[in-house]
Amino acid sequence: MNYQVINVKCVIIGAGMAGISASANLLDNDYKDFLVFEALERIGGRICTFNTDRGYLELGAQWIHGQQGNPVYEIAQKNDLVAPGFEKFLQNPVAPKIDEKNLFPPANNQSLLQTFNAKTDCDKTLFLTQSGQKISYKFANSVYDTLTKIILGAELLSIDPKSKTDNRVGDYFYDKFCEIVRNEMRKDLLDHTVQDLNDYDLKRLLNGLFIQRDRRENIRNGCYNIFDVSLKNFSCYKEFPGHSYVELKRGLTPVLDALISKHKNEFYSRLYLRHYLKKIILSLELLDASDCYNRPSLHSTYANTAQKAVVIICDASNPEKPRDFVVVCEHILCTMSLGYMKENINIFLEPLSLISEAKRLAISRLGFGCTNKIFLVYEAPFWNEKMNLLNLIWVPEDLNFRLDKLNHRNDTKKIWYEDMVKIEVVNSHPNTLSAWMTGNVEFEQLDEKTIGLRCTENLRRFFNDPSIPEPKFVLRTKWFTNRYSRGTYSHMPIGSKSSGFEPIGM
After folding, report:
1. Which of 378, 380, 386 is nearest to 473 (CA)?
2. CA 136/CA 142 separation, integer angstroms
3. Helix ranges, 106-167 (H)
4. Residues 214 and 226 sit within 8 Å (Cβ to Cβ)
5. What are phi and psi of 372, to 5 degrees?
6. pLDDT tens-digit series, residues 289-335
7. What is the pLDDT of residues 197-217, one digit of tens each?
8. For the whole prediction, is pTM greater than 0.90?
């Protein structure tokens, strides 16, 4: 087969934040001998702002996490993209003081659950159960603060990185919570006997709050289950000081636009959209003879030196007539999603033995989870205008199986709607709710109509209101099904070593 051949010094695979940043850096340094290949029809990767005539929806990344020293925040601030109230350095308001008292035990169990009316209730943050009852905000928030402090405590643990012993964050999380409940409320969450009905209901409520907070931690840690995450490496990520959830005026895509604005024409002249990677072929001359393939090599055909690589790219810009072409280059910068890399490195890289074992192990061992969003757009809001967050508390019916759904045992993965963690009012788009999904990608196979109906059933159940209407429009993400992402972001799984991941960036 004859290929069209392109000779260039550097190839960048992927035009997400990393690929765009690399391009901008090269152009800033007057380096122009490079091309960028992006498999999708747009730039941005997992930054994806969906604009309508009424506002915008963030399908991917939504906030800037941290301010001081954060280059993304600096770009946004410099270009007047930061939302009002976030222009100055802010202490993170979500972190409670660790030395404060934890729980606020109720005077009696009945005071914990209250009747609820969606139109008249004025709380900004709601904790509702699947039976349509509202949990006392004071109590629920004290449990949340307690759980947040346990997580902060886990991040501050000083564990010898050389230690061979590792534990699961989920186990530490639950054990500490049980200890605090036992000390402050004189309740044993591990005792599931029904001796006192009110006592049993309180334990169910405490476990329901734990399960929901645990699922929210899945979002923050980029994992399917916090029980998969390494306690020893829980604090290895660098966090920038400042507010953890900096909001923007028009979403995150304008940050990308600002990043390339200085070299906009030069960047787009080097960008090829809907061009996906098929092969990276390195020189066989660098291998022992025993490793060589018994077939003609595209590398030897098109590259005149062992110091160059051959990249096979498929041009899918015309779906009816896709075509492959060969790029001969000296440097390749792979900025694709780790999820894609984990699934495809054995396929697209040839020969694999030229990549160090340390790099291959780092890619295979790093965890990669998935968070999705479901946007529900209505003709008019059915909720009180003061509400901005609804926490869905699935109270376990049987405490003997309280953690089964977290671990998706007994075929609970099919009950995907119970992995709906929270529902937020979308300020950037009128009459819209955003439901967050974590730990379960089963719903990605369903159509929007089916998803909208199930979300409506959930809302009617939690609000205890059968009159809640169906949304007029449903938009959802499918980050796991997307073959070029296969998830959203990474975590350190149980048994991993923080130093073992450094080779990925080399």
Report:
1. 378
2. 10
3. 137-156
4. yes
5. -125, 165
6. 334 333 446 777 788 788 889 999 999 998 888 899 899 999 999 99
7. 568 888 889 999 999 999 999
8. yes
Token readout for 322 is: 């896709």
**Residue 334 neighbours by CB under 8 Å, 6+ apart:** 13, 14, 280, 341
CB 424 within 8 A of CB 388: yes
Coil vs helix vs strand at 326? strand
- Tell me the H-state helices in 65-196: 71-78, 137-156, 169-185
Q: Could you tell me whether strands 420-425 and 432-438 are parallel, antiparallel, or unpaired per DSSP bridges?
A: antiparallel
The pLDDT tens digits for 356-370 are 888 888 899 899 999
**φ/ψ of residue 376, rounded to 5:** -115, 115
β strands within 75-228, DSSP E: 113-114, 125-129, 134-135
**Sequence-distant (≥ 6) Cβ neighbours of residue 13 within 8 angstroms:** 19, 37, 277, 311, 332, 333, 334, 335, 336
- Segment 161-187, tens digit of pLDDT: 666 678 899 999 999 999 999 888 888
User: For 444-492, where are the alpha helices, taking DSSP H only?
Assistant: 448-463
Whole-number Å distance between alpha carbons of 75 and 64: 11
